[in-house]
What does this fold into?
Amino acid sequence: MAKYRVLTAVAAVLLLSACTSFNPFTGEQQISNTAGGATVGAATGAVGGLVVASATGTDPRVAALIGAGVGALAGGAVGAYMDQQEAELRAQLQGTGVSVTRVGDQIILNMPSNITFDVGRSDVKPQFRATLQSVSLVLHRFGKTIVDVVGHTDADGSEESNLLLSRQRATAVANVIASQGINPNRFFIDGKGESDPIASNATDAGKAQNRRVEIRISPLRAG
It folds into this structure.
């Protein structure tokens, strides 16, 4: 059975920097329907190590958070907890251009790239940082959740460059959010490149929809 692979601090700094190459770990299995990503491990590159998903499909964040004393949710408490968090996110993000969608017990934030990044860039626009800080505020209040940050691109350019850009952008968003005092062990970052479109890449409007970063917030459950 495959084990988790732990990266050194030096490798993790390189991985978390949005301005450097992102190691895709293409041989690894997925967590929460994302493949080749990694848990953040610490905010803004101040890292002690990263854990990459193994073929077991087990999410390493759950054990880490529960082991650190974060209480897991169970039963009817899950829905009520996510209801409250959804309401606060909708209030905080109203008018920002970020959409909030509820799918079961998961909350999905869709951040179009036109408000988040300049064309071809992976550094977050200065004016968008306030929006990410609003997300941090809610995540701080609702600590019993785990957070997947996944980048996406349109189909222009090479598959390889799109994959790299999507992962760099996801990393940049996660770093800004985590830098506001959010437990970095809650995060999982990845990029899908052009492989998961939500609209046609045959039109400019469709391409614009496909260029996005999604944040998926899920309840922390034991087992």
The longest helix spans residues 159-178. The first strand starts at residue 5 and ends at 7. The radius of gyration is 16 Å.
